Structure formats: structure tokens, C-alpha cells
Amino acid sequence: MNAESELLQGTLTLMILKALSWGPLHGYAILRWLQDVTANALQVEEGSLYPALYRLEERRLVTSEWGTSENNRRAKFYRLTPRGRARLREQVSAWRRGAAIVEQVVSATTRPASGAAAAT
Questions:
Q1: Which end of the chain has fewer CB atoms surrounding its CB within 10 Å, N or C?
Q2: Which of 3.20.20.140, 1.10.10.10, 2.40.70.10, 3.30.390.50 is the CATH number of 3-102?
Q3: Where exactly are the structural domains of the chain?
Q4: Can you give the pLDDT at residue 23?
Q5: Cβ-proximal residues to 98 (8 Å cutoff; 6+ apart), any chain
Q6: pTM attached to this predicted model
Q7: CA angle 24, 29, 31 (to 5 degrees)
Q8: Where are the beta strands (DSSP E) in 10-73?
Q9: Distance (Å) of CA 56 to CA 60, 83, 96, 103
Q10: What is the pLDDT of residues 43-98, one digit of tens each?
């Protein structure tokens, strides 16, 4: 697993909820949007996306209904629930706080105080 994969692990829910904040989408459209918005830097596998969508549906953060895609194919469309919108706001806020904390650490220009003798 590379550093980017480790960083993004656990953020898939946030990214799916954000994609659905624009309106109902089927799974492939969610994948395509994530690729487009990240200039193909993010490649989410279907094997990760669909189980995440099912979990979100179980938690009543999204609902789904069958419809017809832009390619005239039958597809399951997912839509945010009010509970999902609230969770998105919570997760965005938590992400921003966490990212700010990490930025403080990686941008630090002072050394930690030495608490022990230097290792040899």
C-alpha cells in the first residue's frame, strides 16, 4: 500500500457523500467524478466503492432506486438522505480540523525537546 492509499483509507465515505451532494448518481458516475475531480490521481476500485455504498445505505445515509443511466442502461442511483447531508457536514469539518493539525506538524520548524540521551 502506498502513502496515498494509506492516507485515503477511511476517507471513501466522505468522498462518496461529497459526490452525492451534487445530486443522485450511479456507482460508475461516482467513480468517474472522483477520477475527474482528482485529475485521475485517485483510482477507487469497484470492489471498494460498492461495499461502501451498501454500508451507507444500511446506515441510512443514502437511499437508492433503479433508473436508466445516460447510456440507456439500468443502473442503481444513490441519493443523500438528510442524515447523510448532516454526516457530510460533520466529516468535512473533522477532515479540515485534522488536515490543519497534520499541516502544523509537517510544517514545524522547531525540533522536539530531547527527553533522552541520543541513540547510538
A1: C
A2: 1.10.10.10
A3: 3-102
A4: 97
A5: none
A6: 0.83
A7: 120
A8: 25-26, 62-68
A9: 6, 10, 22, 30
A10: 899 999 999 999 999 999 999 999 998 889 999 999 999 999 999 999 999 999 99
